[in-house]
Amino acid sequence: MSKLTNLIPVPNNINEGLRGTNNTLMLSLLGSPSDRYTRRCSEPTNKKFLKQVVWGKNVGPFKVSGYKLAVDSLKKVMKDIKQQQPDVYTVLSSAGMLCSRYVRGSRSSISNHSWG
């Protein structure tokens, strides 16, 4: 396990060409998950959005709740990790996926975790 916690240099080509999304895009594609946000984590309240959420889905080493397409994608990634990096797979855990709140330190920017 100790070698899994050793810091290593991150290759320059990791996630090449990718960038994080923003609230404008997420809101236009999926709508607002909740009718109000705070600094604290809460469940989404938007009924239309909730129709696309799956709850307690087993993705391998743990269960998650979140937007169905994201959960399905995570399950595939976990399958690949299990096959390619079994030592890593055995120590994975989750601190949560679906958490409707503002970005830490903000009172206007919705956290991407709000969409799960």
Work out the strand percent.
5-15%
Global outline: globular
- How far is it from the N-terminal to the C-terminal residue, by CA? 29 Å
Q: What does the radius of gyration come to? A: 16 Å
**In this structure, how is the largest beta sheet organized?**
2 strands, antiparallel
Strand runs, count:
2
One letter per element, helices H and strands E, the order comes to: HHHEEHH
- Tell me, rounded to a whole number, the average pLDDT: 93
Q: State the strand order across the main sheet.
A: 1-2
Helix content: 25-40%
**What structural category do the secondary elements indicate?**
alpha+beta
Alpha plus pi helix count? 5
Low-confidence stretches: none
Description of the molecule:
It contains 5 helices and 2 strands, in the order H-H-H-E-E-H-H. It has helices spanning 2-5, 23-30, 47-50, 68-84, 86-89; strands at 53-58, 63-67. A hairpin with a 4-residue loop joins strand 1 (53-58) and strand 2 (63-67). The longest helix is centred in the middle third of the chain and has 17 residues, at 68-84. The radius of gyration is 16 Å and the shape is globular. The two termini are 29 Å apart. 14% of the residues are buried. The mean pLDDT is 93.
